[in-house]
TrEMBL record:
Domain of life of the organism encoding this protein: Eukaryota
Gene3D superfamilies in UniProt: P-loop containing nucleotide triphosphate hydrolases
Organism name: Durusdinium trenchii
UniProt-recorded name of the protein: Sulfotransferase domain-containing protein
Family matches, as InterPro entries: P-loop_NTPase
Amino acid sequence: MSGVLIIRRIGPLFCPAMRHGPFPLALGFWSLASTEVVPNTERLVSLISEQFLTITGNVTALADPKLHRYRLASAAAARHAALVTRRYARERRAEEPEDLRLEELDPSFCEAAPQFLQIKNESRNMDEFDFVNDCCEPTKFDSLGNEQCFPEWPSWPVRICCAHHLSQGPSKSSYFAGFWRTLAWSIFESTQSIDEPPIAFESHVKSIMAYHKSGVSLSTELVGNVAPGPLTRFLLKNPEETVMVPHDFQVTKFGNHNSLRGGRPVISPFFQSFTRTFSDTKTSDMIIHFSNPLKSEAPQFQHFLSEGAGQVLHLVRRPSDMILSGYRYHRQDLSAGEEWLKFRNPPDCLSCDHEAWFEIFQLCGFRCSYNELLQNVTARQGLQAEYLRSRWDIVKMLENAQAWQSLDHVLQVPMESFHHDFNGTLRCIARFFFDQKPDQIPEQQFSADLERFLEESQGMSPEVLQSCREALLRGEHCTGPRSEDEKSFQYRATTHVASTVERSHLRAELRRTPGWRHFILLADAAFEALLLSSRTRELFGCPT
């Protein structure tokens, strides 16, 4: 990459999308009159980006002045790419102050991707190269981009180039919008379960799959973090003596899966996708916990399980509730939590699609973190940003729910079920994993183990956490289960649970966002249709 990119004004950063003056994130005045984009900047930005330094553990390098310089250069490149994208040009170029406009960006910014690809595929004719299909296709590479096109991940070019090309297709329309229309149509056309012969499956492998803001925290508590949790102790016969610590595993043709290190998800290939595993060394029993499964052209391990290699508990949630929960949680100024919320070089929105990344961070000229953005916009603007951030996870959840709705070895449980009847939902999950129908008389040992499991899980009940949250708001005292530290329990209650008044207010604001009309209302309806046509919950007596 070569060329020079010049910002023509020294002054505060104004946000063209807002009508209330300068964006509060402009901390003082930018003292950078010009920002050079020098050869090899793409590689340099990757190697000193906040993501890369966090992955490698080189936290002290975050204070390097070069990091700030390259962040501004890359932000300018991203801002320019948004302006010249046809979708944004009509809306933004007329509003952009003349002295804030950017000089033309050297077109070689995105040329490195096909060059990298050609090196990996020497026999391929690059005349047939298609940027979207070969480098960015979300159904092939999720939100990561093709590693053959973008070997230095995480980097800005993945987002800048992929978002630009995805919105510049033959119809000059949004790639995501086209994908969602196709999926929604297929869901409403086939909501009835099809009578098919049941798939033979192995019961030794029991798995739980959850999505960001759709059961990851709850399922983590149930399965266990570093030590086995109550569900793991219940499903595996003698975990105290024979269960292995979480470990990495590899399955031919089904990908590599990283477990926890030090109680936190491995930052590889990215934050929200991880797998933790507990295995019994005396039997072949195993429990596997997935967070945010990827879309990929290569089958992933969740597909292996759904095809009969094991049982799957699929935790799903109403899309509007996922967005409300995400907005509230992500705008909190937490001392500990998800690192991606603070990243500004490049800014991150977790597993969001590339077009959504552009729409979110154009609000601050690509110079703020996601957490900073949510703290400095109105609730309605923040909820719109969270809708954009969440929508790719939501369509993956709905797509999996549709594909598995008629499978007896996949139990799809909505998060609302835990709110309405926590113990009843846990009983249903227990019967599912042990293939025991409600009308069957359980063995005495099963009943005793089940009651112990229920007792150990009470501190995870949404109703208990909600009660604690309301008590704290009234200035009263609340405590959790005897096994949990009081401060830890109260922290979970305040950070993960919204008050009734706050939830009602945010839902009213969500209905006024453009995302409500364009996506959320239909996504909620698709969610309801899929739940009604999934037969396994009824089979094992889950609460309705």
